[in-house]
Structures are given as structure tokens and as C-alpha cells.
């Protein structure tokens, strides 16, 4: 009888132990990486850091100090391969848009962070939108982060809530089976060619940023970039929009898309005229014109560029 009672107590204790709710371990958030030339850099995992484009050679020196072995660009701009090589790093180009990440690209990113030499630095231009999304999707896909940590990466990095496709990609990130990643034939190239429209947009964005810096310096060449001439940069912006309008891909777009490009070209042309004239009070008009271009680009992006992939009905990840 005593033996029976002892056995019963043991069974009840075991059942009670199994019925306890196991509290999941807290997932540490991304850690800020102190770096003067790596914008918005965060460490997601001992092997993976997300951030913005390295700021020249100084940025690559900081990457080298962090022990980075592989740099993955998810931006449209062509990577600085030569500088990376000079610091003993391999560049891999896996670009994606603001509309989300396709299933194929998500698998490639996961395979890259799992198999390429680390630590790995994943970057876009500013390090706020595409790179934190790519890094989160890659780390979840490779099993380096739990799926429920992905959205926190975007929130920490400051990813714009308006990029619904990026948030959808993070929210639907999942662990890929090892056998699937093993069988994936991924060609990790240093750079990949971009469609003419995407390439034109990269060049246009760079010139627009130059003008923003010039504006911040009172519509004069900023001290950090004395080579930037205000009137010349406005002229280049006008030419970028003009070249954009010559592309067949643009002319085949809806009429309002073409109209917004044409209006931006005209505003850039007036901006050039204002800056070239250098008249008193011209800076106020210059700011108004740059704001007008910004507003036109924002409307166009919202209507065409930033529409999430899953809402287009193609290459759904869920």
C-alpha cells in the first residue's frame, strides 16, 4: 500500500510538472552598433549586422574593425566592390524593392547568412527600410532569429510604416527547411544588372540627396561636399527626369505616372533657373520647388513603387 501511494504521488507530481506553463525566453532586441560611418547600424545576431551604405573608405574601415567578412547590398545602387576587396571583404548583391521580398529572394538571403563567411553586414542606402527587413527575413529563414522577433527589428530601425510590403515580409518571415536551403542553387554575384527604370531612379535619388544637402547649407555648397554646385545639381536632376521620360518602360506606364515625371522635370528646370540666377529671395523659391518635387515623388511612390507584392497578387509569401 505504501508503495502504491508513493507511485501515485510520483505520477501526480509528474503531471503537475508537465502542466506548468513554460515561459518563453525573452528575445533580445537589435543592439545599436556605435559607428560614425555606418548609418543606422544594428546587430541582430553575432553573425549579422544591418545598416546603411558604408560612407566611403571610412565606412569600410569600420566594417573591418567589426571583423566583417561579407557585405550584402539589398540596394539598387552598384556596390563599391573594389574598396570592399581592399579591406578583405566579399560583396554580394541581392537587391529588393520597397514593396516587399519575394519568396525566391528570401531563400537566397537565408542561404547567404547561413553559408557565407561572417560576420555579415547587410545594407541598403539609409539602413532604415530595406536592409533591416532583409536582415530580419534572412535571420529568421536561416534559424538565427525566432519568427516573432522580425517585426521588432523593423520597429527598432525606424522602418516607415507606410512600406506595408516590408512589414508584410517581416510579419510572414519563417524558418526554411535546411534541406531546401541545401538544394537551393544560389549564385551570389558581386553585382547584378538593374532594369533601366530602376537604374535611373537610383541616379535620380542620389542627385536629389545632393540637393537636400545643399538646401541644408543655405543653398550653397555644403562644407562636407564643397564640390557640389547648386545650379549644376539642379540641372542634373532635370536631365535625370528628362531621360526617365525617354524610357519605353515609362511611356508605357499610366498617364498620371508620366504626368508626375513631366511635372517633376519642369520643377527641376525652374529650380535650375532660380539657382543659376542667384537673385535675392531665390532660396525661398528654391525650397518650394524642391518640396514640390518631393511631394510629386512621394505620390508616385505611394501609388506605384510601394504597393506591396502580396497586394499585386504575385509571388505571395503566405
Summarize the structure.
The protein is an alpha/beta fold and about 325 residues long. The chain folds into two domains: about 30-185, Alpha-Beta Complex (Protein-Tyrosine Phosphatase, Chain A), CATH 3.90.190; about 195-305, Four Helix Bundle (Hemerythrin (Met), subunit A) (Up-down Bundle), CATH 1.20.120. Helices cover about 55% and strands about 5% of the residues.
General form: globular
| Fourth-tier CATH superfamily name of the largest domain | Protein tyrosine phosphatase superfamily
| The CATH topology of the largest domain | Protein-Tyrosine Phosphatase, Chain A
Q: From the 3D coordinates, which CATH architecture of the largest domain would you assign? A: Alpha-Beta Complex
Number of strands: 6
Give the termini separation. 58 Å
Number of domains: 2
Q: What top-tier CATH class of the largest domain fits best?
A: Alpha Beta
As a percent range, the share of strand residues is: 5-15%
The helix count comes to 14
Estimated helix fraction = 55-70%
Poorly predicted spans = 1-26, 314-318
Mean pLDDT score, rounded?
85
Q: Strand order, main sheet: write it out.
A: 1-2-3-6-4-5
Amino acid at each position: 500500500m505504501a508503495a502504491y501511494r508513493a507511485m501515485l504521488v510520483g505520477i501526480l507530481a509528474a503531471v503537475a510538472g508537465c502542466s506548468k506553463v513554460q515561459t518563453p525566453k525573452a528575445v533580445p532586441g537589435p543592439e545599436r552598433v556605435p559607428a560614425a560611418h555606418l548609418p543606422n547600424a544594428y546587430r541582430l545576431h553575432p553573425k549579422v549586422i544591418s545598416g546603411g551604405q558604408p560612407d566611403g573608405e571610412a565606412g569600410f574601415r569600420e566594417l573591418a574593425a567589426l571583423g566583417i567578412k561579407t557585405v550584402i547590398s539589398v540596394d539598387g545602387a552598384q556596390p563599391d566592390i573594389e574598396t570592399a576587396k581592399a579591406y578583405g571583404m566579399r560583396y554580394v548583391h541581392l537587391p529588393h524593392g520597397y514593396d516587399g521580398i519575394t519568396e525566391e529572394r528570401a531563400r537566397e538571403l537565408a542561404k547567404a547568412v547561413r553559408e557565407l563567411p561572417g560576420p555579415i553586414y547587410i545594407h541598403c542606402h539609409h539602413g532604415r527600410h530595406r536592409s533591416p527587413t532583409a536582415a530580419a527575413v534572412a535571420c529568421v529563414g536561416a534559424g538565427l532569429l525566432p519568427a516573432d522577433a522580425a517585426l521588432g527589428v523593423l520597429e527598432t530601425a525606424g522602418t516607415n510604416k507606410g512600406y506595408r510590403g516590408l512589414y508584410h515580409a517581416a510579419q510572414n518571415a519563417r524558418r526554411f527547411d535546411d534541406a531546401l536551403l541545401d538544394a537551393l542553387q544560389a549564385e551570389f554575384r558581386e553585382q547584378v544588372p538593374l532594369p533601366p527604370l530602376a537604374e535611373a531612379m537610383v541616379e535620380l535619388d542620389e542627385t536629389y540627396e545632393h540637393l537636400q544637402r545643399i538646401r541644408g547649407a543655405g543653398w550653397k555648397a555644403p562644407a562636407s561636399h564643397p564640390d557640389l554646385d547648386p545650379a549644376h545639381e539642379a540641372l542634373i536632376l532635370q536631365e535625370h527626369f528628362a531621360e526617365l521620360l525617354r524610357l519605353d518602360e515609362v511611356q508605357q506606364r499610366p498617364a498620371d505616372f508620366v504626368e508626375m515625371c513631366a511635372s517633376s522635370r519642369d520643377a527641376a528646370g525652374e529650380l535650375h533657373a532660380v539657382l543659376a540666377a542667384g537673385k535675392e529671395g531665390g532660396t525661398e523659391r528654391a525650397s518650394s520647388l524642391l518640396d514640390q518635387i518631393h511631394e510629386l515623388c512621394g505620390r508616385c511612390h505611394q501609388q506605384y513603387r510601394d504597393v506591396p507584392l502580396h497586394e499585386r497578387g504575385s509571388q505571395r509569401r503566405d
